[in-house]
Amino acid sequence: MAASLWLARIFLLILCAAAGYAVSQVRPEMLAGGPWWTAIGFGFGGVLIALDEMVKGISLRAFSAMTFGLLLGSLIAWMVDQCQLFVYVDERPTRWLIRLGLFIGFSYLGMVLAIRSNKEDFSLIIPYVRFASQAKPDELLLLDTSVIIDGRIADLMETRFLEGTVVVPRFVLKELQQVADSNDGVRRARGRRGLEVLSRIQRSLGNDVKIHEGDIPEEQDVDAKLVRLAKVLGAKLFTNDYNLGKIAELQSVRHVNMNEVAAAMKKVVIPGENYSLRLLREGKDKGQGVGYLPDGTMVVVNQAQAMVGQQVEVEVLSLIQTSAGVIVFADLKSPSPRRGLQEGV
Fold first, then answer.
1. Which of 8, 94, 187, 237 sits at a 20 to 30 Å CA gap from 24?
2. Nearest-5° Cα angle at 315, 294 to 317
């Protein structure tokens, strides 16, 4: 984008220099000053580029506010001038300077006040008119291959938890098609699942799926292409890849890790609550049975070794946070007489 901008500026300088030379050809007396007129045209182009650099940080709202403030200030200056306050000033140059000062002063004040004001201030000047955006831009959701194959993103969109325009780069779609055409049965199934997930997202209400045709040839890795594209589009990157999320974070790119979202949405287990679960195997310590909650949290049940393979009711005693996650310790809800204290805590 920067290269294209500089090409346009170079073209502008050449055009302005040519226009200056053309001006020197209008009259015969200007022919001798042709190089000077060419330099003047080139300098005019340089002034335009300098003005472009000065105003590049000004938004369209600020420009419109400045224009409104300039008009309002000029109107007030004209009203002051027309009230005949300076009718006794006989000298025309003096009166001209007074009028010039009025218009410059009130125009400047009008622009400054308009820039500092907010939308609500305009409604006081122009009643019943609100300068509000009529078309709110959609959130751009950039998906990588892992999120598409995972499929949970489609569930969030179907429940209206996420809304916006889904952006799928062409290189991600190509990678997904390669997985779907793989000779490996597992990879082929994953690829086809990803294509089905895209169809689900496209059918969901409130979400459009756009295939981004642009590529980033200077980046060879797909992850690097995704981060670069998210930065260019201002999109939010959705991924299951922890490393990709860290790279995006280092480059100040907004991103969401779906695994972290799933962990945050897990049900909070509180001591004293009762759960029904199936004991799948014996525990590490004597007499323990191990089962799992629907979200995958491991539950160690005391004095339940004999109940392995059965559905039991348990009461939560305590929780232990480990590097692998939370481990819940519980007792049988209807324990045998031999039930003892929690073991292994």
1. 8
2. 105
